[in-house]
């Protein structure tokens, strides 16, 4: 079986979560950088990583890396890579994305067109061809330049992995599914514990939590670009990964996962998304304003993404809203609270400093993940005691 170096980009600040997921899936991590992890894997790893990883953004096969400070060096470096080992004679290939940080070459469109030319030259020599029809499978290339070091990858995923396929309808400011999953994985919440999202919007947190509780792989119900690369990843790997995922699903788990929102429309959207994800039985959605948040049981978790005031008139309402969050949380006995927000005065208005805080980039937006840790529930007495 072919061995690859695989690169998985993720949200900045959540590398540790993805690293753990990759190790748990059975692969050796080679390098952890800002916003991406490199690991070793075979063909099977390509399909399993795409199907199983909850926090990754996509999975790239690393084609190679080289140093380039000029366009000539970029051209020669790209031409020096073994493209023919991946791209067949009829493949459609292009540089879908170029990103550059602290490097002499920085214009994405120039990087893209020069690399495409270099790939064409390479493949002309390999296939003894004068031109390519490019009417076969797609081979999108992604390249990052960091301090003039060029890393080149082939994108096996296609549409970003955060698109699980269940969120047909969204809220105003939905949180990315892989970000929501990563944040839940940062908490000690497990499927047998209570989870409430009082600002559930389109339902992302409750749905991601339910997928975890039911052991459902996030990529079970979608397709990936590399499914059409049988010379690189043999077809059976995709069937095997989905079979493996199917065998693990347990929809009979007992859960206590709730999503509330003040907006009726959001509640119906969240329900529909949960149905599409196949976990509607595991979540209870309800229209309920924050002011009516309460729960009779102890040791639950609030995990949520409250409004942070994208619009001016909303900003004015934030101090009172966050004060109310603090009050409702104080009324919950022995609960923990985790909230991600870009609102700078969250802790002040909540009225309590978070026990832990983590800076996370949501795209270009700097946000904070405030963590208020409650006590652990007492261990259940063992039978033999
Ligand atoms: N994480 C969600 C988006 C949350 S946006 C997702 O992925 O879709 C914030 C949500 O809070 C909105 O849906 C809004 O209707 C709701 N909201 C605003 N004020 C509220 C209040 N006082 N009580 C309950 N929900 C409220």
Structure description:
The chain is α/β, with parallel strands linked by helices. Helix content is 31%, strand content 24%. It contains 10 helices and 14 strands. The protein has helices at residues 15-24, 43-52, 71-79, 108-127, 177-186, 204-213, 236-248, 264-277, 312-330, 346-350; strands at 3-9, 29-33, 36-42, 60-67, 92-101, 138-146, 149-155, 194-197, 256-261, 283-287, 301-304, 336-341, 356-362, 365-372. The strands form 2 sheets. Strands 2-3-1-4-7-6-5 form a 7-stranded mixed β-sheet. Strands 10-9-8-11-12-14-13 form a 7-stranded mixed β-sheet, covered by helices on one side. Strand 6 (138-146) and strand 7 form a beta hairpin. Helix 2 packs across helix 7 (236-248), helix 3 packs parallel to helix 4 (108-127) and helix 5 (177-186) crosses helix 6 (204-213). The longest helix is centred in the first third of the chain and has 20 residues, at 108-127. The mean pLDDT is 95. The protein binds S-adenosyl-L-homocysteine. S-adenosyl-L-homocysteine binds at residues 171, 173-175, 198-199, 201-202, 204, 261-263, 266, 289-290, 305, 307.
